[in-house]
């Protein structure tokens, strides 16, 4: 079998190192710097010829810089004649702009996936990419991992004793999966977002009373926090005893944390796809390692 090396990108939040440890693979730290004029520079300082190069780069803020750095890393890796290139992108930025919602917009994620392929990537692993179907734009092997098991482990105290709430129909499959693992009931809200202002409104998807039980809201991303804050208001006004929020990717821009606390959210659980010091963070490295083995065997 061809051996693999892990190339730790400029934004791996420790996942590259953890993966290398977990899978007993060589870890290569890249050289990276910002040039005086604002451009990015990277260099791979070790030989990788005939090895499978596994690049780990999460696309958290500043997203645009991390995307350019990833493209540069792929090109630098390709120049060293690896056997194949596998991308591990724990947080795939722009995944929510998966289509042209209004005339004249870009289909951002489709473009990014084409760029990664065009730069030289053969396979891609990511975590909870908003709409997994949009990954088919990447013409290579693709795996999207749902970290639901990590959430159910973190929430074991609530097994059989809480209600899982999807704040919109897009999160319903996650709510069902978490409810099934935790043996809890689930329900959902319907969300409407104004395409121009981004303002959202939520309404009940079905009649439901939370009967003084804790409510666990689950979503893929917390960006401004508006979705989970409005869902929290709904849950509290329908007899939830407390509200816990879980999401794969905690961007939590600006004063999001403060607003979530003010709304009465008692706990926030996420993963380390994005650095976050305010939430309970579950490590996705082992989950990625399990899936990386499958990809490596198939290349
Ligand atoms: C949208 O459909 C996503 O699944 C999230 O619900 C949304 O992106 C969260 O954004 P925000 O935190 O800004 O409401």
Task: Write the SSE topology.
Layout: E1 4-8, H1 15-23, E2 26-29, E3 31-34, E4 40-43, E5 52-56, H2 63-78, E6 84-89, H3 108-119, E7 123-127, E8 141-145, H4 148-154, E9 163-166, H5 172-182, E10 185-193, E11 200-204, E12 215-222, H6 226-237, E13 243-250, H7 256-262, E14 265-271, E15 280-282, H8 285-298
The structure holds ribose-5-phosphate.
Query: Which CATH architecture of the largest domain is right?
Result: 3-Layer(aba) Sandwich
CATH C-level name of the largest domain? Alpha Beta
Tertiary shape: globular
| Rg value | 20 Å
Small ligands present: ribose-5-phosphate
Helical proportion, percent range: 25-40%
The overall pLDDT, averaged over residues, is 96
Coarse structural class: alpha/beta
Along the chain, the helix and strand elements come as EHEEEEHEHEEHEHEEEHEHEEH
Strand content bin: 25-35%
How far apart are the first and last residues' alpha carbons, in Å? 10 Å
Main beta sheet, described?
A: 7 strands, mixed
Instruction: Give, in spatial order, the strands making up the sheet with the most strands.
Output: 11-10-9-12-13-14-15
- Poorly predicted segments: none
Number of distinct beta strands? 15
Fold-level CATH name of the largest domain = Rossmann fold
What is the number of helices? 8
What is the domain total for the residues? 2
């Amino acid at each position: 079998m061809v051996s693999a090396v892990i190339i730790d990108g400029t934004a791996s939040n420790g996942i590259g190192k953890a993966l290398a440890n977990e899978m007993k693979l060589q870890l290569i730290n890249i050289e990276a710097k910002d040039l005086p004029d604002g451009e990015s520079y990277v260099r791979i300082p070790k030989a990788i010829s005939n090895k499978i190069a596994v690049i780990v780069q999460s696309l958290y803020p500043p997203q645009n810089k991390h995307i350019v750095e990833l493209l540069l890393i792929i090109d630098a890796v390709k120049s060293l004649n690896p056997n194949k290139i596998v991308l591990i992108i724990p947080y795939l930025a722009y995944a929510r702009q998966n289509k042209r919602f209004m005339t004249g917009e870009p289909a951002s994620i489709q473009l990014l996936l084409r760029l990664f392929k065009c730069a030289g990537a053969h396979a891609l692993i990511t975590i909870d990419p908003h709409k997994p179907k949009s990954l088919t734009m990447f013409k290579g092997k693709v795996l999207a991992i749902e970290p639901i098991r990590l959430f159910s482990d973190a929430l074991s105290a609530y097994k059989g004793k809480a209600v899982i709430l999807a704040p919109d129909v897009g999160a319903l499959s996650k709510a069902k999966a978490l409810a099934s693992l935790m043996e809890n009931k689930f329900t959902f809200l319907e969300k409407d977002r104004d395409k121009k202002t981004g303002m959202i409104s939520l309404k009940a998807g079905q009649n439901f009373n939370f009967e003084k039980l804790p409510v666990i809201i689950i979503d893929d991303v917390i960006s401004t926090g508006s979705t989970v804050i409005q869902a929290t208001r709904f849950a509290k006004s329908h007899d939830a005893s407390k509200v816990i929020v879980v999401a794969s990717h905690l961007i939590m821009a600006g004063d999001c944390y403060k607003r979530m606390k003010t709304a009465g959210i008692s706990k926030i659980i996420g993963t380390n796809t994005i650095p976050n010091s305010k939430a309970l963070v579950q490590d996705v490295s082992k989950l990625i390692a399990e899936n990386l083995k499958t990809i490596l065997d198939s290349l």
